[in-house]
Amino acid sequence: KLMEAIRRVLGGQVYVSEETWRRVSDRFAASSVELELKGIGKARAYCIARGQGRSHVTRRVVVDFQGRDAEIGRIAACIEALREGLYDRSAGVLVVGQGGVGKSRLCTHALSRFSEGARVLFAQTVPAETPAFGTLAAAWLRDLIGGSGRQDIDSFFKKNTDLGRWRNVVESLLASADDAGPSGGFGEGLPLDRELARFFLAASEASPIVLAGADVQWADPLSLDLCVTLAREARSGKVAMVLDGRPGVQTDRLRLEAGFSVIELGVLGVDAMERILQSLLAEPPPREWVRRVHARTGGVFIHFSQVLDALAESGILERDSSGRWHLACPDRDLP
Fold first, then answer.
1. 178, pLDDT greater than 80
2. Cα 72 → chain centroid
3. pLDDT level of residue 126 (50, 70, 90 thresholds)
4. What is each CA distance from 145 to 79, 158, 202, 203, in whole angstroms?
5. CA–CA gap between residue 184 and residue 321 (Å, rounded)
6. Is 9 exposed, middle or buried (0-12, 13-18, 19+ CB in 10 A)?
7. Do the beta carbons of residue 254 and residue 91 sit within 8 Å?
8. Which of 101, 172, 237, 255 has a CA-to-CA distance to 301 between 20 and 30 Å?
């Protein structure tokens, strides 16, 4: 019903927030293509074929992660340790790198492959002059509870009576986050980060929880406090974190105070880009052509993805009936 309503209003191409996509993507037949809109967070773009409720994207090139095997392996090891109960080794992974190098895509890809047996809660911050109150914490709560409305909260705590002692804290934080700031008296005398950490740790007793947070360089102080507290108390529950962000004060704090396993993600080298292209193309590309692509993109992942899309649009890359890509015109100028 949601997708039909969106299609009637907007027609072919529809943009939804990353959080909305995660909430509804399993409700209908659709496959998505990531599109990062700089300055306003991430969105997924997809086209809906009229009357079918199925997405159809023609000339988008989905990039594999063959050049990031080691980094994906470290995220997978964190989640595996969580599943095996080695909580002292699974507090979290922090992926740090400049904008556009593929941090969020890498984390999303790894979580989609290795998070079986754990519940993954997603959150993302957006740039703002003053960070919104409890951005990450509130988003994780909404994902866990299923919303922030009275009915959502009532239903959750009715099913999870053992978590009832934290209901007031949860309700107040969600209300304050929706109002873009703490309400009068909220949090007075309470170590909020500790109470929220205890809530998530208690909720993880039913099944392990992975808290995924994108762009933590824009996170608010309460959310950062929560991440630090959870990392320090990880041994007392089944919670792990997979966060990413650009270098700065926030990521430095998580690096120094929380004991995260830190992955420094830089630009792609020529060899890493060549491995990705070899996995994408039906035939190995000429080394000189790979060097040209690398020089054109600077090894920045998002630029690499955009150039591949442009190559497909211009016919330099062609896709056969089996879905494999071929380098049709290696001598043509790159877009």
1. no
2. 14
3. confident
4. 22, 11, 14, 11
5. 62
6. exposed
7. no
8. 255
